[in-house]
Specification:
2-enoyl-CoA Hydratase, Chain A, domain 1; 41% helix; 3 domains; seven-stranded mixed beta sheet; binds coenzyme A
Length: 532
């Protein structure tokens, strides 16, 4: 047993500065979360309530087990776009009758719960998480279907929503649709493709075409109820398996369906008795310096996240810019890779490659803690084979089969983002701290590269170089890249599953690991050819 010792001095000026910067950033994120929570705003929410309906979040609250936590995913989707933050759908993992389920709830107060490009990406991400981790999916449906002005971006790719539902079903992952209102046109295939359906008396409207469309198409006069009401579907078409008298009844029926699934998790159970970290997670507020150029020791994070602050380091004296080692988190074994001093050299890359292979042999999930500016550049390092060593690490990450979780604590730049299992490398979950930044490179470096290239081009053409124009360009580009590197921007584009308060890290990771263990944990048999 190796208990991590901490050197954090909570009475120091550095700690106070770092904590202040973090608290300010958390406040900004909280503000964005509040926008998502407000849905379509007070008037739309009030109108919805006056219709005797529950909001998406109230439905979720009544669905999940009393006092159980709900891990909301991608709450900042669409941040920075023309659409409402949250993208008119609430997704997350909740516990229903003791079963971890992926819950996807349309928010009918935001543009009638319609799907815009961000809604689609968020819903598809929820399906992906459900599939990889074998989580039953519960859809709480009330949506006007495609957001018509952006139909060109949602209609064709949107078919994947229905495809996913039946593919989940084919894999033995149950799908349940509770229909609270509109579920028309393509939306009718949400209940249509689900294993179990519940419809609400005089509320559900499930039809391919509503009354006006039917009139136009065939001349037939028909009303909502005869085309797609709960009563009709429960007694005549057979599309409704259960008839609910009202919304709470539908949620009760949803719970009873889950109870009868006889759901068994396929991954190993966690250790029964778990010790809390010896160092307080509260202190995570002041671990990341306000200026990311100042390095910090990731062991201080590990000490505040893993059980008993017990961390067995692997190769601690080799490739010391990357900390690797074994721990347990809420009783689940994990291998951790954490950047220490920003840059990844050949030694770190080789160490990571070996460590990832060991984790696959031991069938141990991996946690990547990002704070990297990327792989080392320069003649010495190129000659030393940094490309082939970085490629080794990326090969190992890409072909590793054990579940990965990524957490962006600070920088996550360049190919370092890839090697540390960035978004494109399919981590089961990826969260950011408010202090995170991710881009192809730092803003100053990126602006500088453009400037050098421009200067060389002017010289080659024999033209004078516009120094003032260059300075203005650099400033504009730096500002733009800085804004595009920030966690809310990245979260808005669905490049992470959420921005979390560092103090919640242990809880969030514990919930993720628990969800992950619904699926079997298996290591890779094969990796790509390692270039030696
Ligand atoms: N695309 C884009 N915006 C839509 C929309 C759609 N498909 N459906 C509704 N909206 C917008 C409305 O314009 C309105 O915007 P506003 O808040 O700026 O005024 C807002 O969503 C709420 O619509 P409203 O009709 O007031 O809400 P409602 O709760 O009474 O009814 C619907 C919601 C979804 C039942 C109703 O709007 C509707 O039938 N929409 C068309 C559905 C459709 O045909 N979809 C195509 C399926 S592929």
């Amino acid at each position: 047993m190796t208990i991590v010792k901490s050197a954090v001095d909570t009475s120091s000026g550095e700690y106070a500065d770092a904590a202040k910067a973090m608290v300010d950033k958390i406040a900004e994120v909280d503000e964005a979360h509040a926008t998502a929570l407000a849905g379509g705003g007070p008037s739309k929410v009030e109108r919805h309530r006056k219709r005797g309906k529950l909001t998406a979040r109230e439905r979720i609250e009544l669905l999940v087990d009393e006092d159980s936590p709900f891990l909301e995913l991608c709450p900042l989707a669409a941040w920075g776009s023309d659409f409402q933050v949250g993208a008119s759908v609430v997704t997350g993992i909740g516990v229903v009758e003791g079963v971890e389920c992926m819950i996807v709830a349309n928010d009918p107060t935001v543009r009638g719960g319609t799907s815009n490009p961000w809604t689609l990406r968020k819903s598809l991400r929820a399906n992906e998480i459900a599939e990889k981790n074998r989580l039953p999916v519960i859809s709480l449906v009330e949506s006007g279907g495609a957001d018509l002005p952006t139909q060109k971006e949602v209609f064709i790719p949107g078919g994947a929503l229905f495809r996913d539902l039946t593919r989940l079903s084919a894999q033995g992952i149950p799908t349940i649709a509770l229909v609270f209102g509109n579920s028309t046109a393509g939306g009718a295939y949400i209940p249509g493709m689900s294993d179990h359906t519940v419809m609400v008396k005089e509320r559900s409207k499930v039809f391919l075409g509503g009354p006006p469309l039917v009139k136009m198409a065939t001349g037939e006069d028909a009303d909502d109820e005869s085309l797609g009401g709960a009563d009709m579907h429960a007694t005549t078409s057979g599309l409704a398996d259960h008839f609910a008298v009202d919304e709470p009844d539908a949620l009760r029926l949803g719970r009873s369906i889950v109870k009868r699934l006889n759901w068994r998790k396929k991954g190993p159970a966690p250790r029964a008795e778990v010790r809390e970290p010896r160092h307080s997670p509260e202190e995570l507020l002041g671990v990341v310096p306000a200026d990311l150029k100042v390095p910090f020791n990731p062991r201080e994070v590990i000490a505040r996240v893993v059980d008993d602050s017990d961390f067995d380091e692997f190769k601690p004296r080799y490739g010391s810019s990357l900390v690797t080692g074994w721990a347990e988190l809420h009783g689940y074994p994990v291998g951790i890779l954490a950047n220490a001093r920003g840059v990844l050299f050949s030694e770190e890359s080789q160490k990571a490659t070996q460590f990832i292979q060991l984790a696959n042999r031991a069938e141990t999930p991996l946690l990547f803690l990002h704070n990297t500016t990327g792989y080392m550049v320069g003649a010495e390092y190129e000659q030393g084979g940094i490309i082939k060593h970085g490629a080794m690490m990326i090969n190992a990450v890409s072909n590793s089969k054990v579940p990965h979780i990524s957490l962006l604590m600070g920088s996550s730049y360049g190919a370092g983002h890839y090697g540390m299992c960035g978004r494109a490398y399919d981590p089961r979950f990826l969260f950011s701290w408010p202090s995170a930044k991710s881009a192809v490179m730092g803003p100053a470096q990126l602006a500088g590269v453009i400037s050098i290239v421009g200067r060389a081009a002017a010289e080659a053409k024999g033209q004078p170089f516009d120094e003032a124009g260059d300075a203005a360009m650099r400033e504009a580009v730096e500002n733009q890249i800085e804004a595009e590197s920030l966690p809310m921007f990245l979260s808005g584009r669905l490049y992470d599953d959420g921005v979390i308060d560092p103090r919640d890290t242990r809880t969030v990771l514990g919930m993720c690991l628990s969800a992950i263990h619904n699926a079997p944990i298996e290591g890779a048999e094969n990796f790509g050819v390692f270039r030696m």
